[in-house]
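for the writeup, i need someone to sanity check this before i put it in the appendix. the sequnce is what the collaborator sent (i think, or maybe the updated version? ugh). structure was predicted straight from it, no edits. if anything looks off just tell me and ill rerun, i have time this weekend
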Amino acid sequence: MIYDHQGEYQKALKYFLKSLSILKSVYGGDNHPSIAGCYNNIAGVYHSQEEHIKALEFFWKALGIQETVYGRDNHPEIATTSANIAVVYQKQGEHNKALEFYSKCLNIFKSVYQGDNHPDIVNCYKKMVMIYHSQGEHTKALECLFSSLEIQKSLYGGENHPDIATCYNNIIAIYDSQGEGEKALEYYLKILEIQIHLLGGDNHPEIAAYYNNIGTIYYKQGKHTDALECLIKSLDIQKSLYQGENHPNIATCYKSIGAVFRSLFEYTKAMEHYLKALKIQKSIYGDNHFYTVETEKEIREFELSILVSFLRNR
């Protein structure tokens, strides 16, 4: 095990195989949990080396022994080995097979723990979410996420826990990918409240990022006052964190605020914020960097749109 953890896989294999030979001699064959454990260890070494076919070979041997010893389903070790097999299939891109074994693992754990309320069940749901999300099966991914969320709320006695925040982030990612800004916003607001509680205040880069994201959603929804409130809050936090204005995130924030003022036809304020962003970018990147050039281009387009608007209204 030490060699395995140190990444000395050949030495680890040598000693695992030696252990396997001794155990087979002692127990007179394969059908013993210790031998299954040894097969799992060997499989783990092959998995660490990305030798998936060999890993599966030994995981299957371990599973066969466990099902013989414990019966086909109801034992945590069968669940664990099934999860290991699922991980290998997932690595190989065989998502349907991976889901089959994660589902098997999930059902065993539910039976063993006599219900849903256990971290092992949460972990199964998390793995399944990753696959469903990668396949674009958003409804199933959300179903697993919400199941996981309810268990974690029960385990942690409420919402104020980093794992709950992570779960909300995953829910947001799915709603964002579907363009469901209103639903994403609901969970951004939840996660903001949790993070402020966990971090003991709002003076933190993550909080600034959440305010920025919430502001962006409000902007897309045409809720310009709410957008400005959040973006200015993000800006103030970042100025405090970075002890001034000379930071790329602050430039980005100024541009976002400029865009909101532009939508409100407050052109003077919009230009003021665009120019502040440009000044920061020139200071950080120089005149010829992509970000600087892009902002200058936006300013020129903005100036042109103002001129066109003026001429039309003469």
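The mean pLDDT is 92. The chain has three domains: 1-112, 116-201, 218-314.
thx in advance!!
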